Structures are given as C-alpha cells and as structure tokens.
Amino acid sequence: MSNAPKFVLGAILVAIVIIGRLIPHPWNMTPVSAAAIFAGVHIGKRAAIFVPLFGMLIGDMFLGFYSLPLLLVVYLSMIAAGLLAYGTRNEHGVGMFIARPIAGATLFYLATNAAVWMFGVAYPHTFSGLLAAYVAGIPFFGPQVLGDVLYVGLFFGFYAWVTKYSCAFHSLRGTLLRAR
Question: Where is the chain membrane-spanning (predicted)?
C-alpha cells in the first residue's frame, strides 16, 4: 500500500476513535485499542503509534484531560497494543485475531490499574492496596475485552470485504476495458 492510502486509512481510524469515544458507550468499550491493532497490522509501526495517540488526544480535548501520569499510562497502553500487533503482523489466523485484542486489553488493565494505585489516593500504597485496585478494575475488563474483540472483528472484516470487492471490481473493469 502506498503512502496516500495509508494516510487516508490512518485518518479514518483516528476519526473512528474520536467518534467512538464521544458517543455514548459502555465503560471501556471503545474502538481505540482495536484501531491501534488494525493500524499496526495493516498500515505500519508509525500508524500503530499515531492512530491511538491522535485519536485519544483529540478525544480528550472534548472530554477533558485528567491526571498527567495516569493519562500517559493510558496512552502508552493503547500504543503498546498497536506495537504488539505490528510485531505480530505476519502471524495470521483466528488465534491471532483473538489473541491481539485480549493481550492489548490485559496490558491496559494491568498498567492502568497499577497507575491508579501508584498515582492516586484511593488505595493505600501497599500490596493489598494494589490488589484492591486490580479487583476494582475487574468490572471494566470484561467490556473492554468484548469491545476490543468486536471492533477488531469489524475493522479486519470490513477491510477484507472492501479489498476483496475492490479487487473484483478492478478485475471486472479491466476485463470490460479490454473487451472494447
């Protein structure tokens, strides 16, 4: 894929991330991680970084910013999911299709709940406080895994459908032009 279509696809993903964060949705069920994963597999390493970064940054301009240390952990967790996908971009199959979003959601859960414990005041800075932070995050983990798997399915499925029918269209067009 040349640079122009990659840029357009990246811009579309950023727009989806922004819209997905702004519209009402269940907690942690947004397209951010899935867009990062898709970008890492189909666009490249830079897109795996910049799609979630720009989508989160622009979305937070509307939603409001929060604690800088926690914000950085959230952003880096989303970027890490994209880079993980980039690192496994040559691995195909249903296993990777499911493993990438689960790994990304798990990384996000572990990192962000540790950050809430570390940088916040809601939990004592003890091992039991860390465990309490992880327990409190459990209700948000399920929706994130479900959302990430569903959004990854939508992104990859739609991309496969478009490329399949786009190739068929161009093949038919070429056949019709040669027939003239």
Answer: 6-23, 64-86, 98-120, 140-162
C-beta of residue 11 within 8 angstroms of C-beta of residue 41: no
Strand, coil or helix: 20 = helix
Determine contact, residues 45/29, Cβ cutoff 8 Å.
no
- One digit per residue, pLDDT tens: the chain, 180 residues? 677 789 999 999 999 999 999 999 999 999 999 999 999 999 999 999 999 999 999 999 999 999 999 999 999 999 999 999 999 999 888 888 899 999 999 999 999 999 999 999 999 999 999 999 999 999 999 999 999 999 999 999 999 888 887 776 566 555 545 655
Four-residue CA torsion sign, 7, 19, 135, 70? positive
CB atoms within 10 A of CB 167: 10
* Total residues found in the chain within this entry: 180
The model's pTM is: 0.89
Domains of the chain: 3-179 (1.10.1760.20)
Residue pair 84/40 in contact (Cβ under 8 Å)? The answer is yes
Q: Which two tokens stand for residue 109?
A: 């859960």
| 24: helix, strand or coil | coil
